[in-house]
Amino acid sequence: VPDGAFYCYECNAKSAAPDDSADSYPSLGPLFNKLERTNPRAFALPSDIQNNFEGVSARPDGSYSEEVKKFPLAKNSGYGYQRPEYTKLIDADHKVILCTQCGVSSGNKRQMLKCDFCHAYWHLDCVDPPLANPPHISLEASQRDAWRCPRHIEHDLRSGLLLQNDLTSKDGDSEMADAAPVARVPRRVRVRKQPEYVESTFSRGMRNNGLIDIKNDPDDDTDGEGNYVFGDNESKDVNSKIFRVPEKGLILDFVSKVKSGRVGKKVEARHAADTASRRRASMQNFIAYPFPQQQAALALAQLANKTPETNLGEGKVHALILGLTSEAPPAVSSAMSNADPPPPSADERAHLEMLQKLIQQRLGA
């Protein structure tokens, strides 16, 4: 260790004799005197800006730190504090503890964490990203840090990957469908300590930036996930209770069910009508051909269906039909029969070779 006394500037100024240099330099003397009595600090914003967001606090040197909620540990009967039990199978209410992700218990081997902000349990390897160990707790600690499971939106808000629309844009609701999409910048979003709450006029369809406060129904006795919350003096036997369901909820569920059923029926009817119209159009085109050509087309279609390994699909069968059935007048037919045929093209040669293969397979059967 180097020689000398190690004191900060503030402590050194308190123990030192008064300095009269400020009187000698009236312009910059007070400034230099203040600098010599002040410890170095990071650039600090005003306190109202530093304390503007939840979960963030400013240190004395001006830097920021994340506020972590603390929970006290239970005391042991002897010495020290009791650590959480990560492999237990039943909770305090005598309910089986199951992982929210995989639905399996700890089996007295796989460690599980309970979220401090909800009732969910998670295996360490079911968390995204997986955890190698539970959160560290020192031997002398009387408190532990709170743990938040991946189901909470705070992870997404602070990930820096959240893309937000500009709600202040005047043209946000009048963008053309074929216009270029507006660039959205990823942000880290935090909730302000004193936000301005906006009461929505409508219960659905309101644009927001992701920072919302859900108002629970005062007549709802569930925990937010559809589970009934029993009182301290209530029996927890579900089969011995009859739940009173509000009439409005039943009506809305019935209307939603009927509406979804009607939409599904309309989609099926539209699909059946399109299929029937295509079938009628195909039949009309087929009837327009003479009877011998219809027989030839049916024979080729049957050959193609019986021998799928020849790669003779519907379009190629149609091309073969058009090539083999000529509608030319007799004079043109006789002239074409007396003249030497032109050399076949590559596509025509390929079609003829496939037809030859079909004929050979048929004769060899």
Question: Would you mind describing this structure in some detail?
Answer:
- The chain has helices spanning 9-15, 21-24, 29-36, 47-50, 154-158, 247-287, 291-306, 314-324, 330-338, 346-364, and strands at 56-58, 64-66, 70-72, 112-114, 121-123, 143-145, 162-163, 186-187.
- By secondary structure, the protein is mainly alpha-helical.
- Among the domains are: 73-161, Zinc/RING finger domain, C3HC4 (zinc finger) (Herpes Virus-1); 233-288; 289-329 and 343-364, no CATH class.
- The protein has a two-stranded antiparallel sheet with strand order 1-2.
- A hairpin with a 6-residue loop joins strand 4 (112-114) and strand 5.
- Helix 7 (291-306) packs antiparallel against helix 8 (314-324).
- The protein is elongated.
- It starts with 8 loop residues before the first helix and ends with a helix.
Helices, strands, pairings?
Layout: H1 9-15, H2 21-24, H3 29-36, H4 47-50, E1 56-58, E2 64-66, E3 70-72, E4 112-114, E5 121-123, E6 143-145, H5 154-158, E7 162-163, E8 186-187, H6 247-287, H7 291-306, H8 314-324, H9 330-338, H10 346-364
Antiparallel strand pairs: 1-2, 3-6, 4-5, 7-8
Helix pairs in contact: 7-8
